[in-house]
């Protein structure tokens, strides 16, 4: 997982770790561990972040540089 993307996309939106921790229903420390690569972020939380940021999971994990989410028709 591209942990730099998590921090980058959060900071691009002027959000704090505490803000994202609330979205994920976790603590700031847990979220900080995700950004630092100390803890592996569960797929369910990556999916929730992709929805929150309006991007794809592939973008968050560094598989693509395209921020736009995939069209719904491709996700069947």
Secondary-structure map:
Elements: H1 3-12, H2 17-23, H3 28-36, H4 43-53, H5 57-61
Helix pairs in contact: 2-3
Fill in the keyword field for this structure:
globular, 76 residues, mainly alpha, 434 Repressor (Amino-terminal Domain)
Named at the architecture level, the CATH assignment is Orthogonal Bundle
**Rounded radius of gyration (Å):** 12 Å
Number of strands: 0
The average pLDDT score comes to 90
Number of helices: 5
What proportion of the residues form beta strands (DSSP E)?
Answer: under 5%
Could you state the order of secondary-structure elements as H and E? HHHHH
Within CATH, the superfamily carries the name lambda repressor-like DNA-binding domains
CATH C-level class: Mainly Alpha
Q: In this structure, how is the largest beta sheet organized?
A: none
Task: Give the class from helix and strand content and strand pairing.
Answer: mainly alpha
**Number of domain modules:** 1
What's the overall geometry? globular
CATH topology: 434 Repressor (Amino-terminal Domain)
The proportion of residues forming helix, as a percent range, comes to 55-70%
Parts with pLDDT < 50 across at least 5 consecutive residues: none
Termini separation (Å)? 24 Å
């Amino acid at each position: 997982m591209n942990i730099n993307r998590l921090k980058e996309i959060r900071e691009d939106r002027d959000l704090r770790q505490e803000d994202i921790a609330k979205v994920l229903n976790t603590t700031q420390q847990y979220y900080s561990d995700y950004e630092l690569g100390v803890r592996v972020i569960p797929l369910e939380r990556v999916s929730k972040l992709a929805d929150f940021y309006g991007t794809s999971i592939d973008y968050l994990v560094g598989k693509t540089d395209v921020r736009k989410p995939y069209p719904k028709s491709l996700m069947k």
